[in-house]
Amino acid sequence: MVAKTHRGVQRLISDLAKNEPQLGEFARFLSQTYNLKAVADYELGPGAEVPLDRASARLTLPSDS
Questions:
Q1: What's the CA angle centered on 2, arms 26 and 41, to 5 degrees?
Q2: Sequential DSSP letters for the chain
Q3: pLDDT in tens, 11-47
Q4: Where do the structural domains in the chain lie, given as residue ranges?
């Protein structure tokens, strides 16, 4: 199966994570970083800021800490 959308990729990883718990952590990481990218790419105005601590926390995978 090939995912064609972000939601499709999330669904595939979620299905795989049922057998591999480590992928669940990776899926959360991907979702959070995608949200940060969307803010950086598309949002405008005062609510579009990403706090430095939040951005810094996403620069490494949770298992790297």
A1: 60
A2: ----SHHHHHHHHHHHHTT-HHHHHHHHHHHHHHHHHHHHHH--SGGG---HHHHHHTSS-GGG-
A3: 888 888 888 877 778 777 877 787 777 777 777 676 6
A4: 6-60
Token output for 36: 């940060």
Q: How far is the C-alpha of 41 from the C-alpha of 62, rounded, in Å?
A: 24
Other CB atoms within a 10 A radius of the CB of residue 3 amount to 12
Residue indicated by tokens 């579009």: 48
**Whole-angstrom distance, CA of residue 46 vs CA of residue 37:** 16
10-44 per-residue burial string, b: 16 or more CB within 10 A, e: under 16: eeebeeebeeeeebeebbeeeeeeeeeeeeeeeee
